[in-house]
Design a protein that fits this description.
The complex is a heterodimer of chains A (about 525) and B (about 325). With about 525 residues, chain A is α+β, with helices and mostly antiparallel strands. Helices cover about 40% and strands about 15% of the residues of chain A. Chain B is built from 13 helices and 11 strands. In chain B, helix 1 packs across helix 2 and helix 2 packs across helix 9. In chain B, the strands form 4 sheets. In chain B, strands 2-1-3-7-11 form a 5-stranded parallel β-sheet, sandwiched between helices. The chains are: A alpha+beta (about 525), B alpha/beta (about 325). The structure holds iron/sulfur cluster (2 copies). One iron/sulfur cluster (SF4) binds next to loops of chain B.
Chain lengths: ~525, ~325
């Protein structure tokens, strides 16, 4: 038995350390740990509630806006604010546009290098001028003896794509994706002021007042994103998913135990009321729900008739048995609205700063695959019929499907905004004063999965602020029953034939699109200490 | 086939021209200097080594850097610099990533970019990478660096994490005061580029300026380039007329108040030194005040601890009462 540590696990957001045990070339046990903390909830205690969306946006600069949205919703719930139609549309448009570039950047820039033998470009013999330019760039780097940041890298294996045409095409799309992300950020700044970090999304809606000309330019830029998603991103994912990666997909590589949780997002109805799970509950584009495991992991062969339960938000708890925190004696799990953050560095057997979120006492995979399962995407059903299974490839495929629906349906929102703007000024804000006391919950299905913020206001100030974030659901540790977290489940059984080349570890973890700065945000204010993570 | 003949110099040259023209413009230099900048970039073969460290960061500054459109971020990454270590962008993980870092440090003479604050509490244990404390990584990497560029509010002055329990600081400063924690590294050119996140154009132009002239631009007492941080938002604001005539936003939801001065909603424009009002953000897309959001002075060392609450008018600017 050998133990392998991958630290830093790169091309993700934040600092993540993964440790696995390998026996006879297969992973038999796994631990994941975040290695950085800033103390976010403590920073917010005692502050003006209006600060919370600005501050929590900075929990993560990659999935920035989703914290802003969840935080605004929690405050709107506590203050009793209903959004105006313009406010809802602008917030939706921000979230939608951000979602799409986040997903294609994850595919091309963060994940593709795990599946591409980039040096195959040197053998490209075609005549496409765009691809030849890419070839000359990469070959130029090679001949100059400097190929960073593409090297060093893990050695390509039998699942690496090495067809020169495919690899060269995908690298050209890697470069194009970076450019289109910058353009997407420009488009979103029309609604938010600056990107990343959407300052103008505030409690009560959005302070931006774009002109008709600006909205028309936004529409043009949106259409360019849609063209890329429809003509490049989705076909690329389908081509590798149904092509070279299908055997990997069929093996259930990187599947969790098969429990999925998604929250609702992108409301499409009239103005949403604070009562129905903030504005996420009003006729969402993607519904929330829970799909329960069916026994053996990744054993589903047909997902066209899954039982989907409604989310009961009171069933969410966090456990700390293997985390560096103490709960009151006799308490195993607490709802986040009653969350406690008491650090205990001496705790026996603890190995993570992440708490262990559970739904009805069970682990849940959250994120694109959960959204796809809960919403029963036809494209996902087809993929299963073609032999695909839960796991790494299905996650990538779900992202592409989500992006396609969002970017195409979003055009109608822009048209509606233009129509409203032609009729008069856009009123994007509905402002209410801070109440003396109040409680609120804001939920949103972020690109990386179910996100919840809980706020308690007392004496017009924040008394308690808790976030349960997607990467905590997925990357959290074992619970009081010894049940492993989803990352840990997903790693077990994966082949690692060469101990010096644990490429499958990073493929699995990156398929979740980890956001570790989000996950590790708690710290005790009294001990001011973190434990150096040692895995027993 | 001869690999070298596959290079397309004209493509690279055009990219360099863009970078050079932009740098001259951003620093207010004569465009006549453009050829000199292009030449410097070409002689370099466009490949100055860069190490980019992320401490207590949210990766927002990396995101912002990648938002460059003129020239595109990928042309900077592939033609202008040699990015040897960057956790979010590099192909390598684990030991390979560590080796790349060690080898570049041994070579020396690179530009070090720091993103994210540096936690000093508990001897640096709040942030570790590959089992090493971030404070030690910063010290070892700074020692052989030719110049240090701190990006964003966190790496410059501590940013929002400074308000937390980890004693989060910038490379030189804790808020407005020098902390001297890295004095043993010896004197280094340190350029601070605050705002939350860093502005992509300020960063790109600073890197190229350094590569071209080998010197740092003129800096203020908080190590910010005057070219970007020499003027005050409030003195240049398009809403200044409304400030003078007493038209203030008091209710964001009132369309009659669109475009009014935001000071009663907490705007910190009177202390914010930057050129956001002129440069705007996201390739001239927009910026905070044009989007109806008060300036929170994220360009200042006081941010965020001393500028909170962000949206209340209770900061003493020393201005005459409204
Ligand atoms: S207070 Fe702010 S909004 Fe008002 S004029 Fe000054 S900088 Fe502009
Ligand atoms: S306008 Fe003010 S708040 Fe906005 S980025 Fe510039 S300095 Fe920061």
């Amino acid at each position: 038995m050998t133990r392998i540590v991958v630290d830093p696990l790169t091309r993700i957001e934040g600092h993540l350390r993964i440790e696995v045990e390998v026996e006879n070339g297969v992973i038999t046990d796994a631990w994941s740990a975040g290695t950085m903390a800033r103390g976010w909830e403590k920073i917010l205690q005692g502050r003006d509630p209006w600060d919370a969306p600005y501050v929590t946006s900075r929990v993560c600069g990659v999935c920035e806006g989703v914290h802003t949205i969840a935080s605004n919703q929690a405050i709107e719930d506590a203050f009793g604010i209903e959004l105006t139609e313009a406010g809802r549309l602008m917030r939706n448009l921000f979230s939608a546009g951000y979602y799409v570039h986040d997903h294609f950047i994850h595919f091309y820039v963060l994940s593709a290098l795990d599946f591409l033998d980039i040096m195959a470009i040197a053998s490209y013999e075609g005549s496409d001028p765009g691809l030849l330019a890419v070839k000359s760039k990469i070959v130029g780097l090679v001949s100059a003896g400097d190929t960073s940041p593409f090297t060093p890298r893990y050695t390509p294996d039998e699942f690496s794509v090495n067809d020169p045409e495919t690899v060269t095409t995908l690298v050209s799309h890697y470069l194009k994706a970076i450019e289109l992300k910058a353009k997407s950020q420009k488009m979103l700044s029309y609604l938010t002021g600056i990107q990343p970090h959407p300052n103008a999304l505030m409690p009560g809606g959005c302070t931006a007042t774009p002109s008709v000309e600006v909205l028309q330019d936004l529409r043009k830029l949106w259409q360019e994103q849609a063209d890329f998603v429809n003509n490049v991103y989705v076909p690329d994912v389908m081509a590798v998913g149904y092509g070279p990666l299908l055997p990997l997909a069929a093996s259930g590589f990187g599947a969790t135990n098969g429990n999925y949780l998604a929250f609702p997002m992108l409301p499409q109805g009239g103005s949403a009321s604070a009562g129905d799970i903030s504005f996420g509950g009003s006729n969402p584009m993607f519904r929330g729900g829970v799909v329960k495991a069916n026994g053996e992991r990744a054993s589903r062969t047909d997902i066209s008739n899954l039982t989907v339960e409604d989310v009961d938000y009171s069933q969410i708890t966090e456990s700390v048995t293997y985390s560096w925190y103490d709960y009151p004696a006799g308490v195993d799990a607490l709802h986040p609205s009653e969350g406690v953050t008491d650090f205990n560095l001496q705790k026996q057997d603890a190995y993570s700063f992440l708490k262990a979120p559970r739904y009805n006492a069970e682990t849940m995979e959250v994120g694109p695959l959960a959204r796809g399962m809960v919403n029963q995407f036809p494209e996902l059903v087809d993929f299963f019929n073609a032999g695909g299974r839960e796991g790494v490839v299905a996650r990538h495929l779900s992202r592409a499907v989500i992006s396609k629906q969002i970017i195409n349906d979003g055009l109608a929102w822009i048209d509606r905004l233009i129509e409203m703007r032609l009729a008069g000024p856009l009123v994007g804000m509905n402002e209410k004063p801070v109440p003396k006391t109040g409680r609120g919950m804001g939920v949103w299905d972020a690109p990386r999965g179910a996100l919840g913020h809980w706020i308690e206001v007392d004496n017009w100030r924040i008394k308690n602020y808790q976030m349960v974030v997607p990467s905590t659901w997925n990357a959290g540790p074992r619970d009081e029953n010894g049940v492993k977290g989803p990352y840990e489940q997903a790693l077990i059984g994966a082949p690692v034939p060469d101990l010096d080349n644990p490429i499958n570890v990073v493929r699995i973890i990156r398929s979740f699109d980890p956001c570790i700065a989000c996950a590790v945000h708690l710290i005790d204010p009294h001990t001011n200490q973190r434990k150096v993570v040692k895995v027993a | 086939m001869d690999i070298a003949s596959l290079r397309k110099p004209e493509l690279t040259r055009r990219d360099f021209m863009k970078v050079a023209g932009m740098t001259a413009a951003y620093f207010g230099l004569s465009q006549a200097l453009t050829p000199q900048i292009v030449q410097a970039l070409e002689e370099n073969n466009g490949k100055a080594a860069v190490i980019w460290l992320e401490g207590q960061s949210c990766t927002g500054c990396t995101e912002s850097f990648l938002n460059n459109l003129e020239p595109t971020a990928s042309s900077i990454l592939l033609d202008t610099i040699s990015l040897r270590y960057h956790e979010t962008a590099m192909a390598a993980s684990g030991h390979q990533a560590e080796t790349a870092l060690e080898e570049t440090i041994a070579e020396g003479g690179y530009v070090l970019v720091i993103e994210g604050s540096i936690p000093l509490a508990e001897d640096g244990a709040f942030c570790t990478v590959a089992g090493r404390k971030f404070t030690d990584i910063v010290r070892d990497t700074a020692r052989n660096a030719a110049a240090i560029i701190c990006v964003g509010s966190c790496a410059t002055y501590g940013g929002i994490p400074r308000s937390g329990p980890t004693d989060a600081v910038g490379y030189l400063f804790r808020g407005k005061e020098l902390h001297h924690y890295f004095d043993d590294v010896g004197p280094k050119p340190v350029i601070n580029l605050p705002t939350c996140p860093v502005h992509n154009e300020r960063l790109t132009a600073t890197i190229v300026h350094y590569l071209t002239f080998g010197t740092v631009p003129e800096l203020d007492q908080y190590n910010r380039p005057y070219a970007f941080y020499g003027k005050i938002q409030h003195d240049n604001c398009t809403r200044r007329g409304n400030y003078e005539t007493g038209r203030f936003v008091t209710d964001f939801g009132d369309p009659n108040q669109h475009g009014y001065c935001l000071i009663l909603k907490g705007c910190k424009g009177p202390i914010a030194r930057q050129d956001c009002w002129n440069r705007k953000w996201n390739n001239r897309g927009n910026y905070c005040i044009d989007a109806g959001h008060p300036c929170v002075a994220c360009s200042e060392p006081d941010f965020y601890e001393d500028t909170s609450p962000l949206y209340a008018h209770d900061y003493d600017f020393g201005l005459p009462p409204l």
